[in-house]
Write a structure and sequence with these properties.
The chain is of the alpha+beta class and 105 residues long. The chain contains two helices and four strands; from the N terminus they run αββαββ.
């Protein structure tokens, strides 16, 4: 995917991810990192998703797999997109005071 195509695709992808009420934030990265730490090509598009704490999820969302399945189903509506499994270092956001990391395992 070109950078131009990625820029066109990104708003639709984010809109589909926001349909899941457990999503609290989205951060996207288009292209490759300039520091040489990641061996991806310039056609890389990643979206980092922050989630509500597990105890605030809808009852039918029993685990991360349920949530990912719903998000992947929504993303399939966007022509030209494909998904990969989320990182196993997935975290949920928590309310924290200034200076703390804001993440929990």
């Amino acid at each position: 995917m070109s950078l131009t195509a990625g820029r066109r695709l990104l708003p639709a992808l984010k809109e589909r991810l926001r349909r899941t009420p457990e999503v609290t934030g989205l951060l996207s990265q288009l292209g490759r990192p300039e520091d040489g730490t990641d061996p991806t090509l310039t056609n890389n598009l990643e979206i980092f998703v922050t989630l509500k704490p597990l105890d605030e999820w809808r009852p039918r969302m029993r685990n991360l797999g349920d949530l990912v399945a719903e998000m992947e189903s929504n993303l399939k509506e966007v022509r030209g997109s494909s998904t990969t499994s989320p990182s196993r270092s997935a975290t949920t956001s928590t309310r924290t005071s200034p200076g703390s990391s804001g993440r929990s395992p």
